[in-house]
Design goal:
Rossmann fold, PKF_sf (chains A, B, C, D), alpha/beta, seven-stranded mixed sheet, 18% strand, kinase (chains A, B, C, D), monosaccharide binding (chains A, B, C, D), glycolysis (chains A, B, C, D), homotetramer, four-stranded parallel sheet, magnesium (chains A, B, C, D)
């Protein structure tokens, strides 16, 4: 394989640039040409593709976001769009593609890879950590540290005012960010989509804390909860404990940005390096991941469609340590 | 003066602990006894008052929040509450009081100081910087740095996705946090309560940016804007530019917490030290502040009731540098 | 087991407080009494031991250092000291001990545990990550992030001045901090004790960079290198390339402190929780660790005496990505 | 004035990019052309000069270092070098120059401005804050915050081990960084070049702390102290108190880098904006500064040659609050 392309797709995640850098540097190391497509599959379709050199990725390992830009492509959902994308690759003699993105991007890659029998390696890049086939996705560790830093700040105010805070973190349908942030922040309760927590449970936990003279409490809620957003949950709880000072914070987009943590830089570098070697060795239609410190490959459709359960140990930790 | 008390009141602000430390250490330095009341005026009323020593404030200079805790006292608004507070002070032989807080706390201090002819020095502690009689209030610089750090993170995502972000910062009726965060974050537009910005202005500014091929934009809005919250404003703007990717973030309570910046630690230390010396020299019923690097004293009611205009230079900077 | 003790020993590491909190909370959860000894084995010998409750460890999860304080005990090396320590435990009816510390502390624990047949569980707490029997030690991830933050700052200056920087990081005889910091910081070269790097190698790598018009370079060196400290190495290199602007920075003790990262808080919490359960289940004389996401137990002497090699993958990453 | 140039010179400082951005944007706002010279006066001499547009400075406000790069020019010290620089300016029709740098750069600017009667405005950019004619120089606030963050981390270890730390900060012959870091970090003692502190003073202060059962101490020393470096001072102190655990840390180059603080971004933006307006209004041979929140202009030679004393209030604060 002499020419490959790389793109970032879907929501941005800290570490995407580090992965991109690793792809470009590794391809260069092996004497391959490497092309970057701008704005995900949209740029691929439109031919917004440029040759990248080793120096194109200098000093980007510490940057959040993605210098290639990213998008959720609508056109790529249509046959016509995918045909054009294929032509763009063909016309440049590009033989393999590396897609850095989340589950939507892996799904699109799967379809494309199969339809055109085109070698694609997916790199899991999403703060949500909701892809099967890897212990951690790119951006997750940074997002957790950002959310944790926010919780630490909120704890200052909660303690000073003897308040209850409901803090909503990102994660879509997955509770990974919530549970790790909750453990790390010593949250009195964590509500995740993977396990059922009723409003009554919330009230009981808070009540138990006050009975032990705990004056301030933080409840971390994942955005995908059955009981709704932090605002919804706080509203339902409020009516039962109306003499308490309750505040709500939705951490929002700060969780997506920022310079990647050491963990994310190293994870991204390792995935990027091995993704190029995977293409070289003839792998295709798989997502690269790291499970128990080993590089592994999972068919793209399985990576997307297999549920990834929360580690029970984490759930147990909240119960024993924080309540 | 041999015995004084100190309390923190109203919303917490980073640097309150540094000010408290300075009060305790300075009083100790001058051989005075110093008492801390918990939870603002509530603790004063209830006699939740304890003697503080130099070591009581060890290692708190770097902590957000307030170790004395704080509250917005309802009881202190009633004559009965204030009478009790006065008795608590009298019964302990306390001759002066230092109140660290925002405008509500300064107002309450003014009333109390006048009614009982009791020496009180106010120290301006609020992230909003909305008190006349000081260039900066305690916590403001830290809040701006926290908001700026958030804007930097959001910029990563805005650039990666070519998005428009509306970011709401705190500040109540004042635009100080918004304007400084906006300048520091290179926001394309800043909406503050002090100057009128119509929805049409917002649209024009954004449009002008796109005409110059600016793909991502950040609009910082203060919470006290006439046009409403960031959500309201984005809603109004959206209908005019419906083909654009718009996101909204309300930074919320993270702006109140965190370890104080160097600026806030030094400001707080200086105000705390001088507040004790002011009590010793017979000052009363004034808020201490620093204007153009000089320690100044402003009658409490004037500090609260005089409007504090935004520096025109700052407004000009947004226009020339960021648009 | 009804009564246990816990202490922190050796050099402090961020996350020790989180581990301590987990030990206290888990013991409390199981209805056990838990005692904390101050200043490591010294406090144990001197009977500086106090009962800890759930609230004793409130809000310490985010704190660097250790609230129990720590020390490298000289007295514990003597039979007399160990006898006294044993008496202190016996007299209080304490049946098990948890020691949070590095290799010296694990060695001392091993000797004590065997001599008195006393149940001890070791928890690996050291920024150096140099203990066999766990993928990561407490404090390592935080130290790497701190060092990385420093490298990012130094990169600003290196790039602005087209300079070469030699940056020495901690790690004693292990190159873990160096290699991870080097990868994450995009260092042009990393020198670790585990592999030989001659001065000629350094010069060649730097020269190769300049030949490719790379103007700024960062060399990360571990403190345990055969060629000496960063100062020594820079001196040797300097004479060969005397027309270049060379600077040296020894990061020093900032790497030991600071609020623990999310990773370290969760690792510490998990180890602390499981250590108590290990004592309850009758384990003794072992160090707890996590290998490939599984909790494992390694006899204390083996944990200390078995070399822990650097992951080859990491060495490969520096070569391919950074040169 | 239709064409101006800008350069950064001397040691880099966080905020230089923000100042550069303000210069370029303001010049553009007024319809002027603006040229950037690379690597300080060296680039000017060599004609390494390029036209800058508004977008040339997009997203640089948050970056440490300087995108124009910087250097301490040797050639500019010679008449020949300065002649060449003048020719480069003349040949491009450049009518004014803005120099962002420290005292060496201001001195060189003064000589050049006078010799060729060429309009130059200096912008004080140095972390040392050692220029007369401005309350604060660009980069100072960021450097203090970086040093303070380091002190906070070191405090964790100092407290955990009951240690004495000698921490050396930058500042050349000025004690500004030391005194502010010392106050903010609650250092038990601060040694600055502006006031004499004998080794005996150090010992007495430390001794007084131990007498009050203070177990850990931090001494902040400025690099320009008469008693030498932190290593020298610690060595001298050590012999008098040999039973104490003493550690030394030289913070070094981390103090120069990093994303600028809010304060530095706003200061830099304001100085850059006003510097362009100063050129337009016919000012020349002056350094722009801000004193007591007013923009002021000081002849370049006076800015360099007038001593800038430490604020007595700061010295007093260390004495009363930290000892």
């Amino acid at each position: 394989m002499k020419k490959i392309a790389v793109l970032t797709s879907g929501g941005d995640a800290p570490g995407m640039n580090a992965a991109l850098r690793a792809v470009v540097r590794t391809a260069t190391y092996y004497g391959m040409e490497v092309y970057g497509a701008k704005r995900g599959f949209d740029g691929l379709i439109q031919g917004d593709i440029y040759k990248m050199k080793s120096y194109s990725v200098s000093n980007i390992i510490s940057l959040g976001g993605t210098i290639l830009k990213t998008a959720r492509s609508v056109d790529f959902h249509a046959q016509e769009g995918r045909d054009k994308a294929y032509e763009q690759l063909q016309s440049r003699g590009i033989e393999g593609l590396i897609v850095i993105g989340g589950d939507g991007s892996m799904m699109a890659s799967d379809r494309f890879s199969k339809a055109y029998d085109f070698p694609i390696i997916g790199i899991p890049g999403t703060i949500n950590n909701d892809l099967y086939g890897t212990d951690f996705t790119i951006g997750f560790d940074t997002a957790v540290n950002t959310a944790l830093d926010a919780i630490d700040k909120i704890r200052d105010t909660a303690n000073s005012h003897d308040r209850i805070f409901f803090v909503e973190v990102m994660g879509r349908d997955a509770g990974y960010i919530a549970i790790q942030t909750g453990i790390g922040g010593g949250a009195e309760l964590v509500m995740v989509p993977e396990t059922e927590t009723s409003i009554q449970d919330v009230i009981s936990t808070l009540q138990a804390g006050w009975d032990r003279a705990k004056s301030a409490s933080i409840v971390v809620t994942a955005e995908g909860n059955a009981e709704g957003s932090a605002i919804d949950i706080a509203q339902k709880v409020k009516s039962h404990i109306n003499n308490k000072d309750i505040k709500i914070t939705t951490l929002g987009h700060i969780q997506r940005g920022g310079s990647p943590s050491a963990f994310d830089r190293i994870l991204s570098s390792r995935l990027g390096l091995n993704a190029v070697e995977a293409l070289r060795s003839g792998k295709k239609g798989v997502m690269i991941g790291i499970i128990k410190d080993e590089v592994v490959y999972t068919p793209l459709d399985i990576a997307v469609n297999t549920p990834k359960p929360l580690n029970d140990e984490l759930v147990r930790m909240v119960e024993i340590l924080n309540s």
